[in-house]
UniProtKB/TrEMBL annotation:
Domain of life (superkingdom): Bacteria
Family annotation (SUPFAM superfamilies): HAD-like
Coiled coil: none
GO MF annotations in UniProt: 5'-nucleotidase activity
NCBIfam families tied to this protein: HAD-SF-IA-v1, YjjG_YfnB
Protein name: Noncanonical pyrimidine nucleotidase, YjjG family
Length: 232
């Protein structure tokens, strides 16, 4: 067997975790908790626009993660002119999201097979540390990874080279020529791999058209395709 890769670096949200399901469940609980279910659709639409813009700015280094957490609900509440405590909503939302253990179908089976084949697995995420650690533990994903790297710990975030430098400096066993980054985000995971000069695999199950100019080494639509690539 030709050894192409030994070290597989996985993004978490929308690569292994079903983040959309977890986010929807957490938002619904917040809306119920604050008795604003009647505004649910408008609230979610406004929140998503604000939240997505903040995370996009975070990937570009324009805002800090603390600003995202401190302002996304407050901005939503203000825009909708609701008399609610956005700061408290943030705390409750993170608690509920930390209980979002939903996984994409086949994630566990994929990781188990890769581990059985001798690959070393690592998790690399820009998510909120306390939330991600809770979800990793609650879903039992944590037992598959040699190490978990979260942007709050590294002092930087994907796609910046500083994030990957931290990973490689703290896991010196990883040989970059045998490392593969797997993730759903072109701007975070794939661009990050390019910056770090390692191969990348874009997880694109919904066959989204790529107009970004960012090119991955591989494109897959399911976990079986990943296993076929690394098991050559």
């Amino acid at each position: 067997m030709i050894v192409l890769y030994k070290y597989l670096l996985f993004d978490l949200d929308e690569t292994l975790f079903d983040y959309q399901a977890a986010e929807t469940a957490a938002l619904n609980r917040v809306l119920q908790e604050y008795d604003v279910v009647e505004y649910a659709e408008q609230f979610k639409k406004t929140y998503h626009l604000i939240n997505n813009k903040l995370w996009s700015d975070y990937e570009k280094g324009l805002v800090q993660k603390d600003e995202i957490l401190a302002t996304r609900f407050s901005k939503t509440v203000a825009q909708l002119k609701l008399s609610l405590d956005g700061s408290k909503m943030t705390v409750d939302y993170q608690l509920f999201l930390g209980q979002g253990y939903q996984l994409i179908d086949g994630a566990i089976k994929c990781l188990e097979k890769l581990r059985q084949q001798g690959f070393k697995l690592y998790a690399l995420t820009n998510g909120v540390e306390r939330t991600q650690l809770s979800r990793l533990s609650g879903s039992s994903l944590d037992r598959y990874f040699e190490k978990v790297y979260i942007s709050e710990q590294t002092g930087s975030q994907k796609p910046f080279l500083a994030f990957y430098d931290f990973v490689f400096n703290n896991s010196p066993e990883i040989e970059k020529e045998f490392a593969l980054m797997i993730g759903d985000s072109l701007t975070s995971d794939i661009q990050g791999a390019i910056n770090a000069t390692i191969d990348s695999c874009w997880y694109n199950p919904h066959q989204i058209e790529n107009n970004s100019g960012i090119q991955a080494t591989y494109i897959i639509g399911n976990y079986d395709e990943l296993i076929n690539i690394v098991s050559k």
